[in-house]
Design brief:
Uridine Diphospho-n-acetylenolpyruvylglucosamine Reductase, domain 3; about 25% strand; globular; 3 domains; Uridine Diphospho-n-acetylenolpyruvylglucosamine Reductase, domain 2; 20 strands; about 350 residues; alpha+beta; 4-stranded mixed sheet
Amino acid sequence: MTALAALTTLGVGGEARELVEARDASALVRLVREAWESGEDWLVLGGGSNLLVSDDGVDGRVVRVLTRGIERLPAAPGRVRVRVEAGEPWDVLVSTAVSAGWSGIEALSGIPGSVGAAPVQNIGAYGAELADTLVAIDFLDYATGEAVRVEADELGFGYRTSAIKRGRAGVVLAVELELAEDPSSAPVAYEQLAAALGVALGDRVPLAHAREAVLRLRAAKGMVLDPTDADAASAGSFFTNPIVSENAARALPADAPRWPLEPDEPDRAVPLGAEPALPPAPRERLVKLSAAWLIERAGIARGFRLPGSRAAVSSKHTLALTNRGGATAAEIAELARFVQSRVLADFGILLQPEPVLVGVNL
């Protein structure tokens, strides 16, 4: 039996009854199919960076994905297509792209975990997300047992979600991305990153400059894997930014950050003398809120911990829950529930966890 705590960035999780390693795609397919055919519990484990595993562990097979490889494919002039094995560390891919002059994923620098996990979560940061560059995935489909190609538009991407996260069972074997062959970054789309670079929104900068700025910003929040930083023993952002109706957002204090998810309806010109057509029925617009702002306004400060607990809110960023040394999954979950309850009581909003929960209920 193998303790999963050593294989997750939170450093919690009980034992797996069986742990096997897949170092090539054929082994990955075979080992996963065997687990499915046996009917036993199963878990596919990549970098373990977006995972909260219960202290009871997994009474079944855990398949650790260690496949590696970045293959350049034919593409249109000025474009780059790459096929990347699921076990490739995500930031190795970003570093490779930046060094080669491939633009499009530099704002996703420093995100821990494996490439195969990226489409499940539709990873994103600093105004960019995987959906911006993903073409397709190779997917081992649980429903059929077959390996199939799934195009990006079939994955139902949304904010930190996908059809896979919402229940399409299976395993990502590889991803295909399309990037630009360009030494400059994609247009900077996030105010904090623009400020760090000293440029305006929409400007472009050398790829290396963009990557360095993102890594600095993430490190300042404890969001880069670093064994010397106690705040890095986390699953990254533990809660997603809530998406609510515009009406619901109006009930919050005026200084609550909010970002409309849709542009304003354009003005319509009607010729003089013409009868204007009835406008379509208004649709309730959605806005994204700041989970960190809600947590802090609910009275939970950086570094907060429950009495006697070894789990704590990060001292750098209230979105991260951290293992301060010897914490259990139960302690992490207890802290998460406390944060949720405070925000719900003060604002009527239930924060949703971002990590995949295995045997844990919030």
